[in-house]
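Changelog note: in this version the structure field was regenerated for every chain. One regenerated record is shown below for reference.
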Amino acid sequence: MSRKCKLMNKGPMVGNNVSHANNKTKRRFNVALKWSNIYLVIQNITRKFRVRISQQGARTIDKIRNTEGDDAALDFLKKSSLV
């Protein structure tokens, strides 16, 4: 399974570890992914979606749900092809 957020389309980045003696070795900055259960009420039916998204993606879904409602959050998930 790839370390990529399907919602925000974020992947790992590559950089350097720099020692005190200025030696540089490659390192990888992974995305903070977690399994998240998203509950949306659609036409008076509660639906559960289990997705692996980044923490920024989870905050984005919560923000959309709180401001625009569950239907807008479902449209956002459909647009990113998670549902």
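Spot check on this record: The first strand starts at residue 13 and ends at 18. The two ends are 18 Å apart (CA to CA).
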